[in-house]
Amino acid sequence: MTAMTATGGSEERAGAGGAGEGTATRGLYERLKAYEGRPAATAGVGKDPVNAAMIRHWCEAMGDVNPAYEGPDAIAPPTMLQAWTMGGLSGHQGRSGAYDELSALLDGAGYAAVVATDCEQEYLRPLRPGDQITFDAVIESVSERKTTKLGTGHFVTTRMDIRANGELAGTHRFRILKYAPPPARRKGPPTAQPQPQSQPQMQSQMRVQVQALAKARRPRPVINRDNAGFWEGVSRHTLLIQRCGGCRTLRFPWLPGCQACGSPEWDTVEASGTGTVYSYVVMHHPPFPAFDPPYAVGLIELAEGVRMVSNVIGVPYDKVRIGMPVRLEFRCVDEELELPVFRVDETLQRPVSRGEG
Amino acid sequence: MSLHRPDALSGRAAIAGIGATEFSKDSGRSELKLAVEAVHTALDDAGLSPADVDGLVTFTMDTTPEITLAQAAGIGELSFFSRVHYGGGAACATVQQAALAVATGVAEVVVCYRAFNERSGRRFGSGVQERQPSAEGAALGWNLPFGLLTPASWVAMAAQRYLHTYGLTPEAFGHVAVTGRRHAARNPAAYFHGKPITLDDHAASRWIVEPLRLLDCCQETDGGQALVVTTPERARDLRRPPALITAAAQGAGRAQEQMTSFYRDGLTGLPEMNVVARQLWRTSRLTPADIDVAILYDHFTPFVLLQLEEFGFCAPGEAADFVAADALPLNTHGGQLGEAYLHGMNGIAEAVRQLRGTSPNQTPDATHVLVTAGTGVPTSGLVLSRDGAGAPDGSSDSAPGGPPDGP
Ligand SMILES: [Zn+2]
Fold this sequence. Notes:
- Chain B: Residues 256-377 form the Thiolase C-terminal domain.
- Chain A is α+β, with helices and mostly antiparallel strands.
- Helix content of chain A is 16%, strand content 31%.
- By secondary structure, chain B is an alpha/beta fold.
- Chain B is 32% helix and 16% strand.
- In chain B, helix 1 packs across helix 2 (66-73).
């Protein structure tokens, strides 16, 4: 879900290839390039399933007191994604020969120093205690030779696909710079080469950046077993209203039982898609990164009589009015989130509003 | 609490002490420390010591557990501890819980408290952008992807419909703001002491969420407030005159949500407060005409109007004119708009001051004071009375005042 960039310690000067772009170098680059697409790790298995103890340790180390990460409905902090794949003190398993060969090739070419530069993580679904983690990693790209403040070298990007119970849960891209420090700086040994995964500073940068970028997207729907059917309907471009199996009352929001009669039986009816603006607000303050104030949010009364909060589109925010007829549309607000929204449609006959006040 | 009959709690408990910290924007200390200070101040006010306390009640939202408060405040064993949910809707219900405990002998001295760094710490006004997929999280979740993210926005949705229904403009909300700030201006404890506003100031203040302007929204506050509840008999032996709990009630409506009850018939009322109102009138045998002062929860101005209508002080749609006419002393501490946002607990303290004759905006001979808790959420209310006042003549179980009973 979230793309991010954390600059870890190098500052890339794009295009600063300069001298030495000779045939030998090109030959090296072609050999490096050949590793793209080759596995960096295969059939890795998380040493522990997702568990509350590791979540707690992580949160304590990070100073993260988000209540989402504790209690019976706990999820793991998304940024722990990679932590579930780590080898720990007993070391890694499943690391491929290809990655070691690539490293050796770069070492041999004089790029023996390494620094983690940045990472990106995408989250497809939350991890919960009990999830069994498996992962594969691939060498995604090797850059051309670049000159940075640290020295000249090649960026190597690996992408790890992390699965929970076999289902893709997230991806973790990790970029390192394998480089030769410039001679002037070689007073000591090429600075430490810690496993970048274990650098606390790196993790904390990741966390900050991931959060910053996560906020630039709209809040996600809160989906659980009781309302998942609604969002499945949205994914098929249908707006589903629950209908009680006992008394036939239509209801929204989705709940597992009927407020009118208590019956747990229900089916759904597809909304016709027409409705009216029952009320609305115009949001000015405070600003939220995913939204561009001022913007209008409407309470839509569907022709079927139920109401839902949505966005009113097709008119400027200051032209939305109670009673406006609207028609359902589905709108992608980002690459993952599609929402039912309502376009003002003055050609519609205004339905009679249910009740009053 | 009953939906249909007077309850048996009337007159069986009293508020014997009140205490608060200063109200600020940056307390400079922990929420626990604020809570302890408020509790000690309230106990001093009552003439009790921490060793006298055997019960504690707070909000589920409070970060200070009863046991931690007890440890830090010098309170020993507890025979009663309880927490009430639904944000500011808990305020008067903490006193109801305490009253139930002392009336039944479960505890003898119960302290209700609420303390937070709501301004310098987590600000409610900054909104919500994610919720966990619990039932509670999912209920609010319907609003989030569409950008309806703040308490102001949830109230504004109902406020817009109210204005539309009664043909009013947003200026209708200004009277509540002006009244609160007028009272705060004369209250040295108020954050807005000495800073009254005019209707023009209200109308000129910037939009927060249309139709709500900045001056329709309460401030955000760091501070703590505590209340000491005990039996009337014990209270009469203490330092201050008791404020008798004449009636206490909680209420949730049909199809109730927390702040987003958008799906029930009409958005122009507060059905949960109607539940509270019916029970307070039934149990107290009072009518709106018997109320000398009303302390109505004012996190946002519109819901003060709706409360006046639910309690039957005026007809639906007429509350703005009712407030403009200054017919009822309202939020005499300055309210949460003017004194402090202490999740409604400071309003209960003001009701006690009115009955003691120590309010900064004292109503002469105040005998019965109505106090309410958070609006838009499941809520609560109290009628507090001066000791010895009793119910007015002519009341009876069969002819309670106020609005007609719902189904
Ligand atoms: Zn039914």
